[in-house]
Design goal:
The strands form seven sheets. Strands 1, 2, 3, 5, 6, 8 and 10 form a seven-stranded mixed beta sheet that branches. The longest helix is centred in the C-terminal third of the chain and has 5 residues. The N and C termini lie far apart (about 85 Å). It contains two helices and 28 strands. With about 375 residues, it is mainly β. The protein has a domain of about 160 residues: Leucine-rich repeat, LRR (right-handed beta-alpha superhelix).
Length: about 375
């Protein structure tokens, strides 16, 4: 039976098992009791002998330790604290540090959301589950070490703007939206165990200057590095096959990037707004230059498209005002009339070794020109 109780404590101890996407599941039934004293914590007691921290008085401040065990006053039994429930410490802006005991295996959704005064927290090796947004908006948190028990990091540290370093264990295989908005993060080491840089994983990490992607990664997903304006260089390994939509959009500090031959898909807007990118070479395995892929790359001067490219879609290079040299393979079948709109320095392109003036591209008559109809 679920039972709620209050417990007097000045220090709260918590032990967690980390896996950032699992929702905390409570007990099967409950008996609720009022908790009005601001010095009391609220626990949920379960039939299996475990207890869940479900609430804490937001007005309390300073360092706390979550106990590994609590005694329920109505049955005099001792319960092991194994979980930190959803929203348990949400909005407790006065908390500065929290000690979590080794008994804790899961941290619920938004468990510490908005704890802006929190500067340090140690997550024990016992934690396997970390819920969505568990530490979102913990702007005072400067560093965190994730234990080896965690396999996935999803959404957990969004907008932790004070976070400057983080250690990701080798047990993690995917990262999704985990560090979005962590503008203070300057560097991060991604372990070889990671196979996907998930959607919006590092979005708007404007302080990030460089990052090394391990050769275990096969996919860089939607918006993974979007808005990382401080990023000046990045090395994409030969293992990567797909660069998804908006993956590097708005990376205005990026001056060069080498796309390996392994890449076969580059989705729309992937490099849009990379305003300091000066040249790009597309590998032979890519078939389409999709909509807005290089839109607004206004320092882009040279582009070489691989032999496999058959289509350049609408607005692919729109507003690339300094573009002067574009090499297009003879395999090309479609060039949208808007592909090079507002490329003011571009007077002609080369298609299969033949120079073609932009007028023929803009009027969709380049095929006739190549056939000798003009």
């Amino acid at each position: 039976m679920k039972r709620y109780s209050k417990i007097i404590s000045t220090v709260v101890k918590i032990s967690l098992s980390v896996m950032l996407f699992v929702n905390l599941v409570g007990c099967s039934s409950s008996e609720k009791r009022d908790v009005s004293d601001p010095h009391f914590f609220k626990f949920e007691y379960c039939d299996d002998g475990t207890a869940i921290v479900v609430d804490y008085a937001a007005e309390n401040k300073g360092a706390i330790t979550i106990p590994s065990e609590v005694e329920y006053e109505y049955d005099a039994k001792t319960y092991s604290v194994t979980s930190i429930g959803e929203n348990a410490f949400s909005g407790c802006s006065g908390l500065t540090s929290i000690e979590i005991p080794d008994s804790v295996t899961s941290i619920g959704e938004r468990a510490f959301s908005g704890c802006s005064g929190l500067t340090s927290i140690e997550i024990p090796d016992s934690v396997t589950n970390i819920g969505f947004w568990a530490f979102e908006d913990c702007s005072g948190l400067t560093s965190i070490e994730i234990p080896d028990s965690v396999t996935s990091i999803d959404d957990a540290f969004q907008r932790c703007s004070g976070l400057i370093s983080i250690k990701i264990p080798d047990s993690v295989t995917s990262i999704r939206e985990a560090f979005s908005g962590c503008s203070g993060l300057t560097s991060i080491e991604i372990p070889d165990s990671v196979t996907r840089i998930g959607a919006w994983a590092f979005q708007n990490c404007s302080g990030l200057t460089s990052i090394e992607i391990p050769d275990s990664v096969t996919d860089i997903e939607d918006g993974a590095f979007r808005g990382c304006s401080g990023l000046t260089s990045i090395e994409i390994p030969d293992s990567v096959m797909r660069i998804e939509a908006d993956a590097f959009r708005g990376c205005s500090g990026l001056t060069s990037i080498e796309i390996p031959d392994s890449v076969t898909y580059i989705r729309m807007g992937a490099f849009s707004g990379c305003s300091n990118l000066t040249s790009i070479e597309i590998p032979d395995g890519v078939e389409k230059i999709e909509t807005s892929t290089f839109e607004g790359c206004d320092r882009l001067g040279n582009v070489k498209l691989g032999s496999g490219v058959t289509s350049i879609e609408e607005s692919a290079f729109v507003n690339c005002s300094r573009l002067r040299n574009v090499e297009i393979p003879g395999s090309i079948m479609n060039i949208d009339v808007s592909a090079f709109v507002d490329c003011s320095d571009l007077e002609k392109v080369t298609i299969g070794g033949v120079e073609v003036e932009m007028w023929y591209i803009e009027t969709d008559s380049w095929k006739e020109f190549l056939r000798g109809s003009y």
